[in-house]
Amino acid sequence: MKSLEVQTTSGNTPAPRREQGGTSSRLAYLLMSPVLIYLLAVMALPFCWAVYLSLTNKVVGVPETFIGLRNYVELFTDSVFWKAVWNTAVFTMVAVILKAVFGMIMALVLNENIVARNFFRVMLFLPWTIPTIVSVFTWQWIYSDVGGVLNAILLKTGLIDSPVGWLATPDLAMFSVILVNVWRGIPFMGIAILAGLQTVSKEMYEAAMLDGAGAVKRFFYMTLPSVKEVTILSSVITTIWTLNDFEIIWLLTRGGPDNGTQVLSTLSYTVGFLNMSLGKAIAISLITLPPLIMLIHYVTKRSLASDK
Question: Between vectors from CA 198 to CA 194 and to CA 204, what angle results, nearest 5°?
Fold first, then answer.
């Protein structure tokens, strides 16, 4: 009987373990529930509602009517929309490439033992910290054809004979807004690449110099491979931010002149808040969603892989 009692007791021992595992699972779901509720309320439901509104003819102050994919069909046959798509691609690609190039140059310079290096590192970060509206209004004054600093400098140096309307023609306006975006974005790229350069061993550079490797070879065979990952990751993040940039273009040009700087973000705002067509405006915004999802997935995947 004693032996039977022992066997019976030992046979029942897994039951409390299963109960403990179930309790742990319930506790885990309980702890996760606030985050899940937050994501559902703040992200999932508004997103689903936005998708629904993009399939309607919703106008401010008027009940919506379901129209299916008509908004998307009208957009794909609209020349202004395709102009905005082209401008968005040009604006994003040129701005990101320039940020990466100048960010790399500034990081390489600030990584050297120069005088007042810490001071210049702080100055590098300043454009990133200044509020966007302050930066844009300052650049408006710089670009102004009446008393603008840029025209005054070019006139004094004899490079131009009359003031240039930097925001008056489509090509110059696109160049001008890209320049402002690059100026604001270089600090992020520079600081990120500089952080990567800090991990490169100085002894490696000294050994390469003793072997006769010049500055160009050291850059392409040592520096660039060492900061490749952080440069790619920072460039992708910058691409996401540049695709969504609205304030600089809207405050400088409002998408003009002649839609020369009209990008998808400004077009969506114009259609939604000036023309009051919310359904079509949301459809414009949702068109940028697939590339953004791919970029965010890429960033997440690379970040998780680097942590392993």
Answer: 125
